[in-house]
Amino acid sequence: MLKDLFMGLSQNQFLNSAAKKYGLKMGAQSVVAGTNIPEVIKSIKELNAQGISCTVDNLGEFVFKEEEATTAKEQILQVIESIHENKVDAHISLKPTQVGLDIDYTFCLNNVREIVDKASQYDMFVNIDMEDFKHLELTFNLLDDLSFDYDNVGTVIQAYFHEALEYVEKYKNYRIRLVKGAYKESEKIAYQDKKDIDANFIKLIEWHLLNGKFTSIATHDHRIINHVKDFVKRNNISKDKYEFQMLYGFRKEMQLKLASEGYNFCTYVPFGNDWYGYFMRRLAERPQNLNLVAKQVFNKKTNTIIGVAAGAFLLGRMTTSKDKKKKRK
Questions:
Q1: Catalytic pick from 57, 102, 129, 274?
Q2: Given phi > 0 = left and psi -120 to 50 = alpha, else beta, which region is 120?
Q3: Which of 55, 78, 102, 188 is most buried, by CB atoms within 10 Å?
Q4: Under a CB-based contact definition with an 8 Å cutoff, are residues 30 and 297 in contact?
Q5: Can you list the positions of beta strands (E) in the chain?
């Protein structure tokens, strides 16, 4: 029920637009590293100082106009330049729909190509984030097309898909981020039960660690992290073959602990005004995320559900109220 609620909120274009007007509200400031490039660079430097690398996501949703996609591309290019100029340990994560995938494939490919080309000049990796199922094949097509000219690009494979192992096997020679999956998908194509998703996630991790190029293991689940620790030790897998990843603002103590233990660790660092959809999906993703945010944002755990849902409602009310006032004027 809660997952459906937050996923619905994440896809609500009215609330996404309203959120841009009111800045980081409802606790999002604890999981979004600012709204501009100087703020995100500052956050990266702080993480780097603690032995943590970063992957930077310039947040963006619902892009259906070429000028908006071009603006997003230019912003990402500025992030790449800023990472290089500040000599911080970071690379890029981008969503294809932000740079035009819902507009035209060739237009999007050219935008992503420009980003990947700029990053390659600075020996910087670009991860193409995977979105929902309807964009899956097109996203893999982007990776295929770009791979003819560049080797600094990879993507994400989501464990909840029934065919996830086939994707992992096909793209074993790429740097791949493995995740459980954050979107609501049909039972025809994706596992629905947490136990099934976790079991498949572990299967993918083990296969790619043994056969793949480089594995980014993106999870906050300490049980899976401990399983991976035991697995790599038993199989003598070098630490330069994988990294753990977590989201900015989540399980900070565990992030620091893993880095201090000598594991490669990367924090997914989102920033920008278009934070609302991202924040709602993080709350929808797993019940544990509600608890994690609660510990950092709210005094009581139960306030998370009430606070975020009420905040979404109030955000809509605030916008409606302002619009009415403008009409009266």
A1: 129
A2: alpha
A3: 55
A4: yes
A5: 53-58, 90-94, 126-128, 153-158, 175-179, 214-218, 242-247, 265-271
**Phi, psi for residue 176 in degrees, rounded to 5:** -125, 135
Give the model's pLDDT for residue 294. 53
Locate 323 and state its tokens. 């619009």
Could you write out the DSSP letters of every residue in 73-136? HHHHHHHHHHHHHHT-SEEEEE-GGGGTTTT-HHHHHHHHHHHHHHHHHTT--EEE----GGGH
Which of 177, 251, 282, 286 is catalytic? The answer is 177
92 forms beta bridges with 56, 126
- Return the percent helix, strand and coil in the chain, to nearest 5: 55, 15, 30
pLDDT of residue 299: 41
What is the dihedral angle through the alpha carbons of 221, 224, 226, 230, rounded to the nearest 10 degrees? -170
Nearest to 66 by CA among 115, 112, 100, 94: 100
Q: Which residues lie below 8 Å from residue 170, measured CB to CB, with a gap of 6+?
A: none
Low-confidence ranges of the chain (pLDDT < 50): 9-10, 296-310, 313-314, 320
Is the CB of residue 159 less than 8 Å from the CB of residue 180?
A: yes
Catalytic (active site) residue 129: yes
- What is the structure's pLDDT at 7? 54
Is 177 a catalytic site residue? yes
Give, in degrees to the nearest 5, the angle at Cα 195 between 192 and 199. Answer: 105
